[in-house]
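Sequence, please.
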């Protein structure tokens, strides 16, 4: 039942880019809310296990769609100086949901009421539709003279002076707005030597986010605390609470520190926590150290590998290329999520039953690789425009074997 949502996620992510590009960010988000409403209602009212599985799949599709739409939407609405803060809100919403779910374990209510939270939140989003603005960037992609885009900019940023408003419009168009109306495929991005390293960098971060072991910690967190806490479920709630606090810290830090710095601190801190956790499982340190190690692991995740993969795609791409890149990255993210959910028990069984001492070492290897990749290859994106970032990465030619680009086939313009 749990893995069904991870199966549905890639389907939603696959459709997300096309829907967002064709129908607009606002319409796509409202369609997604309808999917959550339908799937969540079936969840709460399911008469059989088959209906529960179907509901879980529909909610998975809706979740995959949201994983594409929300980062794109927030990235396009946020001013450059607040892109990191806005982008981290995606992760902040996720961890609040995790905390609410863990706290729900201590409330003695019917499972149908618990599942009813999904359609209730979807209905709330639909009721807020009048306050949901269309992305000015998407509107200007289609019409540089769009009155709707200018109206949205006034409501978002409070422009009173017509000249200042037009300067913002020129800035958006100059940063990629109004460049194209057509759909750009993932294949086109991979074939373009100026876009390929950007896409591979985004995908690599999403792979690292899932294969670093964070979901294994949450899926099996109660097992870590057996013998440490009287009620292991309390440990899960504690970790979820730490998760929320750490993500709030990330919101504060995101636009004050560089993305590279936070990612390296994240991967390095998680790697060290993995070693402590392994030592605790080996009996080399007190068992209570596993609780501290898990909390540290989660905290370091939330300052870097948690939020940054979601927001960095919108910093590296714009226009139709953004929709395709976000869709591809999210498909990979969901696929890795599914593999971890199914694969961690197999790794655990192969390396030693019941959380064998070596079961987290493969995740440590992933974190070491992520640290090395970020340090050697990832460009800094904080405070830079999409054009600046693309030119910066192109000048480094960081991905081995990729030619240094001299042109950009996606839009036909030269790369400085």
């Amino acid at each position: 039942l749990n893995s069904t949502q991870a199966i549905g996620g890639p389907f939603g992510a696959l459709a997300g880019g096309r829907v967002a590009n064709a129908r607009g960010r606002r319409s796509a988000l409202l369609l997604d809310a309808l999917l959550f409403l339908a799937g969540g209602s079936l969840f709460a009212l399911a008469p059989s296990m088959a209906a529960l599985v179907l509901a879980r799949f529909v909610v998975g599709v809706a979740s995959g769609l949201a994983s594409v739409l929300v980062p794109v939407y927030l990235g396009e609405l946020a001013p450059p100086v607040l892109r990191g803060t806005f982008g981290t809100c995606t992760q902040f919403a996720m961890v609040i949901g995790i905390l609410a779910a863990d706290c729900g374990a201590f409330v003695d209510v019917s499972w149908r009421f618990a599942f009813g939270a999904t359609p209730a939140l979807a209905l709330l989003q639909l009721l807020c539709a009048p306050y949901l603005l269309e992305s000015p960037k998407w509107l200007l992609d289609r019409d540089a003279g769009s009155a709707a885009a200018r109206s949205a900019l006034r409501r978002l940023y409070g422009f009173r002076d017509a000249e200042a408003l037009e300067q913002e419009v020129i800035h958006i168009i100059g940063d990629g707005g109004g460049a194209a109306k057509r759909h750009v495929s993932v294949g086109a991005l991979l074939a373009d030597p100026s876009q390929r390293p950007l896409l591979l960098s985004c995908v690599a971060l999403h792979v690292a986010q899932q294969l670093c072991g964070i979901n294994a910690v949450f899926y099996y967190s109660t097992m870590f605390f057996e013998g440490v806490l009287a009620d292991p479920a309390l440990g899960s709630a504690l970790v979820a609470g730490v998760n929320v606090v750490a993500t709030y810290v990330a919101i504060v830090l995101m636009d004050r520190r560089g993305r590279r710095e936070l990612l390296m601190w994240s991967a390095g801190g998680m790697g060290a926590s993995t070693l402590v956790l392994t030592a605790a499982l080996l009996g080399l340190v007190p068992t209570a150290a596993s609780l501290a190690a898990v909390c540290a692991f989660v905290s370091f995740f939330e300052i870097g590998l948690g939020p940054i993969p979601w927001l960095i795609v919108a910093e590296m791409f714009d226009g139709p290329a953004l929709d395709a890149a976000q869709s591809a990255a999210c498909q990979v993210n969901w696929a890795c999520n599914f593999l971890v959910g199914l694969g961690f028990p197999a790794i655990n069984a192969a390396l030693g039953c019941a959380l064998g001492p070596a079961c987290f070492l493969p995740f440590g290897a992933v974190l070491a690789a992520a640290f090395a990749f970020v340090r050697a290859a990832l460009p800094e994106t904080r405070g830079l425009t999409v054009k600046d970032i693309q030119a910066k990465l192109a000048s480094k030619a960081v991905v081995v074997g990729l030619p240094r680009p001299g042109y950009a086939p996606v839009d036909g313009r030269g790369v400085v």
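The radius of gyration is 22 Å.
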